[in-house]
Write a structure and sequence with these properties.
Blueprint: E1 4-6, E2 14-16, H1 19-33, H2 38-43, H3 46-55, H4 60-77, H5 84-91, E3 96-102, E4 108-112, H6 122-138, E5 147-152, H7 163-176, E6 181-187, H8 193-200, H9 206-209, E7 212-215, H10 220-229, H11 249-260, H12 263-266, E8 288-291, E9 296-299
Parallel strand pairs: 4-5, 5-6, 6-7
Antiparallel strand pairs: 1-2, 3-4, 8-9
Helix pairs in contact: 1-3, 1-4, 3-4, 5-6, 5-11, 6-7
Length: 335
């Protein structure tokens, strides 16, 4: 990688490092994290650590802190244990689902239709979002780390807007899935959405906000964006493509049940993600301590204690039936 700089979320410039410099920083994060249980050590592949470093502009201490908080969250929330039957009721209307096609870069595509929100439970909505994110990652092609969001605004109205749910969504994606979003296409958003976007945008780091593209079906430049990203023969008709199949809950349920069967193998040492691990690195137990009895991580190196899941400990509470999850990433202090 050539030296230089490009814009970053923190100071306007993102560090551009050589491969050797990147590896040095990855090893330093791994040393600070120390020894981990099997599932967490598999999660912490070199590519995973690199994503956290990228999210923090290659700042080792900030990336390590962010990763520790994610590890605590994964121990408590257990996203890899969520199964289709746990969230099937949230999926019935097709408000979020994984497309059968990928983009031209080989990235998984998640389709979102906020107007089809069918739940009043913030907790349930977030759990389904986490399931969809884990499923999209499960189906990434080898060598791919990011996904595409296609957000369809057909039927969207003011009742579908919820800053509270958007903040929850933003927190999860920003803090628990850094650098997983390649691009988010906002397809035919109505005019009244623009003020809402201005409210949501400050929750996002500039690097993330720049991944959000407004696309309109009657605009030639927008059409080119879609044609550059997708094979139009396999893109859904709703997004200007030629695939008229659409969403069917019964077909989709079967797809997800089959995917669920792949999850245990995904979280074993045989999975390719674990090949980059370096177990010979020293274990900094004073930095992060594993209590195998309680299944929790206690953090002794940070000056301040952080809630392992400040956003996801939201109780099920009533929100308007149309409340949705539209935003991409955001701040963990949003609530």
């Amino acid at each position: 990688m050539s030296s230089g700089s490009k814009k970053s979320p923190s100071n306007g410039f993102e560090k551009a490092l050589t491969s050797e410099e990147e590896q040095t920083k990855i090893k330093e994060v791994r040393r600070l994290i120390g020894q981990l249980p099997d599932k967490l050590s598999i999660y912490c592949s070199d590519t995973c650590i690199a994503r956290y470093l990228q999210a923090r502009n290659w700042h080792v201490k900030k990336a390590t802190k962010m990763l520790k908080e994610s590890l605590k969250w994964r121990l408590e929330y257990k996203p890899e244990e969520i199964r289709w039957e746990d969230i099937a009721n949230e999926a019935e209307t097709g408000k979020i689902y994984r497309s059968t096609s990928i983009d031209k870069h080989g990235r998984t595509v998640l389709v979102m239709r906020p107007s089809r929100q069918n739940s009043k439970s913030i907790k349930g909505q977030i759990k389904y979002l986490v399931y969809c994110m884990e499923n999209a990652i499960l189906n990434l092609a080898p060598g791919r780390e990011q996904m595409v969001w296609l957000i369809d605004f057909e039927g969207f109205n003011l009742s579908n807007i919820s800053v509270k749910v958007t903040r929850e969504t933003a927190h999860v994606l920003q803090e628990r899935y850094p650098e997983r979003l390649g691009v988010a296409i906002l397809y035919n958003p109505p005019k009244f959405f623009e003020p809402f976007w201005m409210v949501v945008k400050p929750f996002l780091e500039p690097k993330t906000a720049n991944k959000v593209k407004f696309v309109y079906s009657d605009d030639l430049n927008s059409k080119k964006i879609m044609e550059d990203l997708f094979d139009m023969e396999h893109l859904e008709f709703a997004f200007g493509g030629n695939d008229s199949m659409g969403f069917d809950i019964n077909t989709y349920s079967e797809r997800m049940r089959q995917d669920d069967k792949k999850i245990p193998a995904f979280w074993t040492r045989e999975h390719p993600a674990s090949t980059a691990l370096q177990p010979s690195l020293s274990c900094a137990l004073d930095s992060i301590n594993i209590n195998s009895g309680s299944g929790s991580i206690s953090d002794a190196s940070d000056n301040e204690k952080t809630d392992c899941s400040p956003s996801l400990q939201v109780e099920s509470e009533a929100v308007s039936p149309g409340e949705n999850m539209v935003a991409t990433n955001g701040s963990k202090h949003a609530i």
